[in-house]
Specification:
With 329 residues, the chain is of the alpha/beta class. 40% of the residues lie in helices and 10% in strands.
Length: 329
């Protein structure tokens, strides 16, 4: 395909009208990106709300995975109730803003239990409040390897504890590191969607949009790890979301998304955030998009132990040849 495309676009062949830069009607994403490059960016959504699916059959009885494919496992009646309650909680949170033009936009894993969670969660919202929904395979559950043998799975989970939760790959399945790779791609799509204001029509864009990502426990923890550049060690210290619960990334005073805008320090400590991670969240609360955090303990001086205090200070401040590109996104 590549040689044919190169030949088609060569100097001897005219470029078809649909591929000219001034004719983007067939490519709305490119048209939006081009408009964004020459105009003010649309407002960022107020929140990114991460929701774990409600209680599923597999959460109650792991033997289900021996006869039902993981993507087809359904919610229990309790899981349905948890999803409905989560929807009501999200609505109350949004309504506290006092805005009249708020809406929600959903990203959802294609697994049955997440789709059922979305359908029941969305009962809290009228049609006019739902800006859209996108099924996104990259935020699916970690793959544990097709139908699961109960005895083998128990042994593998014990092995994972010794090997490390992030790097252990299940036979015929994935490791958390594999999930990290596909979440990286999803994150870039999400950032692009935010930058071009894909969630609302031009001229109707409001800062009161709320994004809701309905996914799975490990996947959501990896998403947070990737977004805030947490280390493998910090990831392995995190605890899972409970079924039907949520974690809220809210736009801070400078425009970045911060967990401390909604959650208390105590809640985040319970989730597994360390002092260094909490210090970074405090910085995220006031920082602007694109701003660098030279003092970030997560990706900077904590890696080096052979400097004295003066040299560490130089490293933090970027002086004396220090690393000026040590920063958190």
């Amino acid at each position: 395909m590549a040689p044919a495309l190169l030949l088609f676009c060569s100097a001897s062949s005219p470029t078809p009208p649909s591929l000219h830069n001034d004719n983007l009607s067939s490519f709305p994403e490119k048209a939006a990106a081009a408009a964004t490059a020459t105009s003010k960016k649309p407002p960022r959504p107020r929140r990114i709300i991460l929701v774990r699916h409600g209680q599923s059959q597999g959460n109650v009885d792991e033997h289900v995975y021996t006869r039902v494919a993981d993507p087809k496992v359904t919610l229990t009646p309790q899981g349905v109730a948890e999803a409905e309650e989560c929807g009501r909680t999200i609505r109350k949170l949004i309504e506290r803003d006092g805005a009249d033009d708020w809406k929600v936009y959903f990203y959802v894993s294609p697994y049955t239990r997440t789709l059922e969670t979305l359908k029941n969660l969305a009962k809290a919202f009228e049609k006019s409040r739902i800006a859209g929904v996108r099924e996104e395979p990259r935020i699916r559950e970690q793959d544990f390897g097709n139908f699961q043998d109960q005895h083998q799975m128990k042994m593998q989970k014990e092995t994972r504890k010794r090997y490390g939760r992030f790097f252990y790959r299940f036979p015929n399945g994935e490791s958390a590191a594999d999930v990290y790779d596909r979440i990286t791609g999803f994150r870039e799509t999400l950032r692009s969607d935010i930058d071009i204001g894909r969630f609302q029509k031009p001229g109707e864009q409001s800062p009161n949009m709320n994004l809701v990502i309905v996914s799975h426990g490990l996947t959501l923890r990896v998403f947070l790890m990737r977004w805030y550049k947490w280390t493998v060690e910090q990831f392995e210290g995190l605890h899972n979301f409970s079924n039907g619960s949520m974690m809220v990334m809210e736009r801070g005073y400078g425009g970045r998304y911060c967990l401390l805008m909604h959650h208390t320090i105590e809640e985040l400590r319970k989730f597994g955030l360390t002092d260094a991670m909490l210090i970074d969240q405090e910085w995220q609360k006031f920082a602007r998009p694109g701003e660098l955090n030279y003092d970030c303990l997560i990706t900077g001086p904590s890696y080096f132990t052979h400097f004295d205090h003066d040299e560490q200070d130089d490293l933090l401040l970027g002086g004396a040849g220090g690393l000026r590109e040590v920063w958190c996104d």
